[in-house]
Design brief:
The protein has one domain (5-228): mRNA Triphosphatase Cet1, Chain A, CATH 3.20.100. A hairpin with a 7-residue loop joins strand 3 (63-72) and strand 4 (80-89). With 229 residues, it is of the alpha+beta class. It has an eight-stranded antiparallel barrel, surrounded by five helices. 28% of the residues lie in helices and 41% in strands. The protein has six helices and nine strands, in the order E-H-E-H-E-E-E-H-H-E-E-E-E-H-H.
C-alpha cells in the first residue's frame, strides 16, 4: 500500500561533507533506516513551453504547485511510477499522487486515456489540459532515507543532484549534468508538527540552517544564468 495524499511541514538544509558527517554522528541513535533506505529518485517535471510554473514558483507566492512523474530507480515500461501534484501553501507541503505503470502513463499522454472515476487523476488531468503541460526537465538524485525511532519524523539525504533537458523519459537512465561542483548534501526533514528537540539541538554545533533550496528551481535558474553568460 502507498499513501496517495498527505500534508506535512518540510524544512530543507544544504550540508557540506563536514556538516553531514558531524550531524549524522549526533542523531544516529534517534533514527533508523527507512524501508527504502538507498534509492535513486528519478523525476520528469512538467511545465508550460515557457516554464511558467517554475517561474511563478521562484517568485515565492503564497500557493504554488508542481507536476512531476517519479520513479524509484530507473524503471522499465512495466514498472510502477507516480504521477504527482506537489503543492505548498503557507509552508505546508501537500502531495497528491497516482500510482500507475509507465506504459499507462504513456497511454494517457498519447490519447488522454485514464480512469475518469479517480479524483486525483481528474485533478492531474485538469492541470495537464489547463496549462498544456509538456516534459521540462529530468532530475535525479541518490537518496538515503531515515525515520525516527520514536518520533514521527522523516529525514532524507540527497546527493549527486543531476539533470538533463533532453531524453525526457524515465526509462532512458539516470545520467545528467551535476548541479554542484563540490560535494553537497540536500537534507529534507518532514514532520506533521514541531521538530523534535534532539534534532534542533543537533543542528547548532555544525552551524546548519534552513534554506529554501528548490531542486527544479535551482537547476532552472542556473541554466538560465549560463545562457545569459
Amino acid at each position: 500500500m502507498y499513501q496517495n495524499h498527505f500534508k506535512r511541514v518540510e524544512e530543507k538544509y544544504l550540508l557540506t561533507e563536514e556538516q553531514y558527517t558531524s550531524l549524522m554522528r549526533k542523531i544516529e541513535h534517534y533514527i533508523q533506516k527507512d524501508i527504502f533506505f538507498d534509492t535513486t529518485i528519478c523525476n520528469i517535471y512538467f511545465d508550460t513551453k515557457d516554464r511558467d510554473l517554475i517561474v511563478n514558483s521562484l517568485e515565492k507566492p503564497v500557493f504554488k504547485e508542481k507536476v512531476r512523474l517519479r520513479s524509484y530507480n530507473v524503471p522499465s515500461l512495466e514498472s510502477d511510477v507516480f504521477l504527482e501534484i506537489k503543492s505548498k501553501y503557507k509552508g505546508v507541503v501537500g502531495k497528491r499522487r497516482m500510482k500507475l505503470q509507465l506504459t499507462e502513463f504513456y497511454q494517457y499522454m498519447e490519447n488522454n486515456h485514464y480512469d475518469k472515476e479517480n479524483q486525483i487523476m481528474r485533478e492531474i488531468d485538469y492541470l495537464f489540459q489547463y496549462y498544456k503541460l509538456i516534459p521540462s526537465y529530468f532530475i535525479a538524485y541518490d537518496r538515503h532515507s531515515y525515520k525516527g525511532t520514536k518520533e514521527d519524523i522523516r529525514i532524507t539525504i540527497d546527493q549527486n543532484l543531476r539533470s538533463r533537458k533532453e531524453h525526457l523519459k524515465l526509462e532512458l537512465g539516470d545520467a545528467g549534468t551535476l548541479y554542484f561542483k563540490e560535494k553537497k548534501y540536500i537534507m529534507e526533514v518532514k514532520t506533521l508538527g514541531a521538530m523534535p528537540i534532539w534534532f534542533v539541538r543537533s543542528l547548532s554545533d555544525p552551524g546548519i540552517y534552513p534554506t529554501s533550496f528548490s531542486k527544479y528551481g535551482s537547476i532552472y535558474q542556473k541554466d538560465k544564468e549560463m545562457l545569459v553568460c
